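Hello,

I think I submitted the MRU job twice by accident. Can you confirm which output corresponds to this input? Input:
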Amino acid sequence: MADQYARSREHSEPTEISAIRWDEPPEGPVLVVLDQTRLPAEEVELVCTDAPALVEAIRSLAVRGAPLLGIAGAYGVALAAARGFDVEEAAAALAAARPTAVNLAVGVHRARTAYHAALAETGDQDKAAEAALAAARTLHRQDAEASRRMAGHGLALLEELLPGGGHRILTHCNTGALISGGQGTAFGVVLAAHRAGRLRRLWVDETRPMLQGARLTAYEAARHGMAYTLLTDDAAGSLFAAGEVDAVLVGADRIAADGSVANKVGTYPLAVLARYHHVPFVVVAPLTTVDLGTPDGASIEIEQRPGHEVTEITVPQVPVAGLGGGTPVAPLGTQAYNPAFDVTPPELVTAIVTEEGVVSPVTGEALDELCARSRRV
Ligand code: MRU
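Support: Only one job matched these inputs. Its output is below.
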């Protein structure tokens, strides 16, 4: 059974966005998430009381973005444990909810491991549930800290690549506080540049088909008072050609051992454009996104999403007719190609910014060395 309900959220402070929180009302523990499918029109919380509800929220993109998926996965295991559900079943369902962002499996694994270790040590189910929750809270906190450190490293890198400031940065998808325990990945760096007075303009790709750029990144940029402009994904080429882009900053859903980067579909074409136009292409991601167990880009499983996301325009807060609740923009029965992500090869990536430092040039050896260094700390 998937048990969740929605409620309006009191309007939050413009610069504060909380995408996820654990709550313990008298009826029992719940996981409260901001329903990102309803933004920017309304701030609605989904209250999940079991793992199937969270799986549904993840599949529908109410909860999304690699680091947040990891945090959600960990809390989901803690929720199952705290409510006395089958932890193994919950962990398996959560880890399989979406395949590409490795953070989801990492988050589930951390909470599940903590649960089993405590159960083996104490034989006490409540203590094991507490251990799973503690692991989720730690991951949440660590992600906030990683985001703060990535912003510092990213800002320093921008100063190095583009001395003098006045940056015009192009970004794709959504990588801010909505996907993080802190201010996010690529957007966290953009925000640091904005706060340092170094950002001239943020170019925001709309990010078809689910419009994470238009709906979510524009929402975050507006709340921070940034100078930003929204463009259709197809308009990026002419923007580069006009010399209007100084750097591209994006996040990642999985970085393979050779430095290949899986990120929201449409990222790879930007990397090709950036190379052609001699513009730095920078990936910002925490080490929880680096998967040394996946050898290369071809080995990354790319999620295929339903065709109606392409054949219809879905604006959830406006109820309209159509198979998936959206307005059809193609003849009925049209087949659609709808991969959620694409893979950018390492040779097109100028740098990968992590909380432990910057990898540039991007090679498997350099990535491996950074991961080894972080394990030693
Ligand atoms: O399908 P989504 O919205 O979950 O995709 C999100 C992205 O592709 C982000 O760019 C990615 O998770 C990086 S955020 C660190």
